[in-house]
Structures are given as C-alpha cells and as structure tokens.
Amino acid sequence: MKSRSSSRAALLMFVAAWSLPAQIRITPTRAPSGEVTLNFKQGNFSAITGRPFSAVDSLEQTLHEGTHVLIKSDPVYRDAMGRTRTESRQFLSETGTFFEYVEIVDPVDGLQYVLDSAHEIAYRIHVKVSVHASAAPQPCLAGKPMAGSLAGNIATLNEGLGSKIIDGLAVCGRRTTLTYPAGSAIFGNDRPVSTVSEDWASWEELGRLVSTSHTQPGIGVMIGSLKNLRLEEPDPSLFRPPANYRIVDESAEFTVPLETAKPSRQQPRSVTALTGMPYSAEQVLSMDEVLGDGTKLTHESSLARHFRDLAGRTRVDRGSMGVEIVDPVAGYSYRLDPVNEIAVRTAIEVKFGLAQAASAPPAGAGQPAREWLGEQTVDGMTTYGIRHTTTFPAGSAGADRPTKMVDERWRSPQLGIDMVSRISNPRASDFTMTVRNLTFAEPDAALFRIPDGYRVVDDPAFASR
User: Fold this and answer.
1) Which string of DSSP letters, residue by residue, matches 110-178?
2) Count of CB atoms within 10 A of residue 375's CB?
3) How far is 94 from 32, CA to CA, in rounded Å?
4) What is the number of alpha carbons within 13 Å of residue 69 lying toward its C-beta?
5) Domain regions of the chain by residue span
6) Beta strands at 417-424 and 430-439: parallel, antiparallel or unpaired
7) How far apart are CA 324 and CA 343, in angstroms?
8) Model pTM?
9) Which three-class secondary structure state does DSSP give residue 448?
10) How many helices (H) and strands (E) does the chain have?
C-alpha cells in the first residue's frame, strides 16, 4: 500500500540537514492526567574557533503556485573562542503553543545552557566539546558529473559546482539529482520524476552549510540560508546567562514540567448513539496531485477502521494515532494508550436513536458559514454534503499571500460517518477520504471492551460521574 510518509521523511531529512548539528533535543510528552513535560536530551558537540559570525538561520518553502512560506528564522551567533548561541522556538502539538528557548554552548568552560526566558531559568549542563580551529578554504573545482544508481532503479547524478563567494565567505557547491522511475512507492508517479538538492558549504571556515535548496515533486522548493551574515565578533554578553536568571544544574538528560492551564471541569460531552444497524468499514486516504508537466502523483493509505454493534457501541481504530471506544450503554468513552496500557475514561451524555430512522439535517442547519450541497447516494447510503471554505490572510503561518483551504464532506446520517471527504490545501497535496469494505454484520464483541491488563484512569478535563 502506497504511503506519503516516505516523501515527508525526505523533507524532514532536508530540514535536519540544514540546521546546525543537534545539541539539545526537546521531546514533549503528555501524561494521562493531562500534564505536559519537556524531555531534554544532550546531543553531540563540536566547536570551531577563530571565525566569529552572526546570522539568521532561515528556512523557507516556495509552493507550486508561488506562495512563499517562512518556516523558521532563528538568530545564531559564534565568537572567536567557539562559543555559540542559538535562539529557537519549537511548536508543541500537545499544548498548541510554541516553546521559546535559547541554547548556549561554551567550549571554554565546558558548559551548556538552556535558557527559559519565560521563567528566567538557565539549565546548566557540563559537556565535552570537540574544538577545531578555523582553516583557510580548500580549492574547490567544478567536476564532471558522476552518474550512478540506487536500489529501486533510482538514477543518481552528482555534480561539483566549484566555488563562489557568499557574503564575503568562500563556499563550495555540489548538486545531487535523483530520478525516480514511474511507479515509485515514494511518489506514486505515473512517469519519471526528479528531486534536486544543491548545497553551498563553508566547512573549513564556518563548519556548516551556508545555503542549500531542495526541489521535490509535491512539496515545491525548500531553501535554507544564512541571512544577514556578519563575519565579526558578537556582543560577549550573548554567551552568558542573564544575571537575573536562576541557575539550575542538570544532567545530560532531564525533564521539566511545563506549566499549562489546568483543565477546567467540563460537562460530559453529548453523544448520539445509533442502534439497530451494526457495521464495519475502513476509511482510506488518497492523495492526488498533477504537476505542472502533467505528471500525476497518487498515494493511498488506510486511515481508520470503524465498528458499531447492534446496541450503538462504536470503535475507531486509527493505528498509531490511537483507538477510541464509545460505550453508550455504560455512559463512557475510552481512549486506549497501547504503549502504557492505559484507558482514559470520559463520561458522556447519551441520546439514543434508531439508525434506520436517521436523516439529514435541514439545509444549512446550525452552519451559517458553510455551503449546503444537497443529498446524494454513495455506495448505497444516502448522504448530505457540506462545503467549508477557509481563507487565511497573508502572514498566516509564514505565508506571503492569502491562502484558501476547501473542505467538502458527504456524511451518512445512518452510519454517523463521512462516506467521502475532500480537502484542497495549497500547503499540501489535495486528498480524498472514502469508505471501503462496508459490511453490515455484528462485529466481534471484544472490540468494544477494554483489553485485559489495561489501567482505567478518568480524564481530568471532565466532571466525574
């Protein structure tokens, strides 16, 4: 089964390759109680002395229709002694917010600091740093392209681009072109497609890439660059924690609780349980895109498995995204965490209805901002359609022009699920979700029970029963 994950993985590899070598890795985790912690893990350290600089570490994406999106813009500094400072922020999906922090590495004193400006804390870790002196750039000549191949009949072409000057710095360039045959599992392409990566680096003087670009079907062009590059000594105070910060000594790996708003007690959510029509079905996600030259990219993957029994109990299995069981008879829903063998229980208010009697709501009911599309039959099921168009202004999520997302759904009132949904988004490929393998038979009763060995905990965001 084809998947877009390989294509996205290639993009993430480009982002990681552009950034400075990992010095601190931050991983957020959310406990069943709702508490979020940040887990810090030390990376590998090396320093280059004798070549101070300051710049803005920038990463941008140009979409296929020309929209420019700024992904990151992080100030970076290095002094003549090899001390570095990086100002970053990381989006935390667990809280929907950004965590802003500063990282300082001091090879002279063998210390690393992670500055939390929100709480005026400097986490201090003792480190070992490999130090190298900056050197004069080596000769870099353009070379004859070298052709080769990789597994999967992928053709490679490596080219030396010679040297040039960027902001007073001598850099050496190379270009790599990978050509994938038709039918590649990565792209789902109906004809050969290519990716092109071009790097300009200053390894001897700066110890890193100065400019890089990556062109890939379905993604557009990613460009990483050091903007506002200045080859001079930065302010020495940038490499010390502010005097008013509290110093907290930590080890190479440490965990910090993240202050989040405590979940307010909410009333149980309302659930309509449809009885009398058990079924099983699979939701399949298809992504389709036509490139400028007419090449078609097609990807398909299983999104979720749906089950409902005669009494209206439901189970949605989204694979690695988790499992949810709704038991209207008991009055609870459960989110299963298979890694920790925990079932998070939430009280629900139930309204029972007969599935065969369910019908579409009145046109536009309760949805004034959405377009009513009427009714149609999909795989023997009566569905009603709604289209929602969202326009994001220029500047939203770093885009330099307004972007528009269109969400169209055709829902079966008897099954209580979307039979077809289509989303058009300029930031990603258009995709369609459809229901397949629909069968009307009683599923295995074990699907609606908490697995043996699981610990049941109550969701703190909802009032207890």
Assistant:
1) TEEEEEETTTTEEEEEE---EEEE--PPPP--B---EEEEETTTEEEEEEEEEEEEETTEEEEEEEEEE
2) 14
3) 12
4) 20
5) 5-258, 269-458
6) antiparallel
7) 9
8) 0.74
9) helix
10) 1, 31
pLDDT tier at 461, thresholds 50, 70, 90: low
The secondary structure of residue 433, as a DSSP letter, is E
Q: Is 172 exposed, middle or buried (0-12, 13-18, 19+ CB in 10 A)?
A: buried
At a CB cut-off of 8 Å and minimum separation 6, what does 428 contact? none
Q: pLDDT tens-digit profile of 337-371?
A: 888 899 999 999 999 999 999 998 887 554 556 88
Q: State how far the Cα of 301 lies from the Cα of 433, in Å rounded to an integer.
A: 10
Paired tokens of 96? 């929907």
The C-alpha torsion from 391 through 395 and 401 to 403, rounded to 10°, is -30
Does residue 22 surpass a pLDDT of 50? no
- One-letter identity of residue 3: S
Residue type, 400: D
Whole-number Å distance between alpha carbons of 336 and 452: 12
The string over 232-258, giving b where at least 16 C-beta atoms fall within 10 Å of a residue's C-beta and e elsewhere, is eebeeebbebeeebeeeebeeebebeb
Looking at CATH, the fold of the domain delimited by 269-458 is given as: outer membrane lipoprotein receptor (LolB), chain A (2.50.20)
pLDDT at 18: 54
Q: CA torsion sign, 376 to 377 to 379 to 385? A: positive
C-alpha pair distances (Å), 184 with each of 4, 100, 129, 148, 299: 11, 39, 42, 18, 10
Report the chain's mean pLDDT, rounded to a whole number.
87
How many whole angstroms separate alpha carbon 435 and alpha carbon 424? 19
Q: How far apart are CA 56 and CA 48, in angstroms?
A: 18
Specify the range with the lowest mean pLDDT, choosing from 24-33, 172-181, 296-305.
24-33
> Which residue's structure tokens are 């209207």?
328
Answer whether residue 465 shows pLDDT above 80. Answer: no
- CB of 230 closer than 8 Å to CB of 53: yes
- Two tokens at 171? 């850099």
CA 50 to CA 133: how far, in whole Å?
A: 6
Cβ partners under 8 Å of residue 232, min gap 6 = 52, 53, 54
8 A C-beta contact, residue 69 and residue 54: no
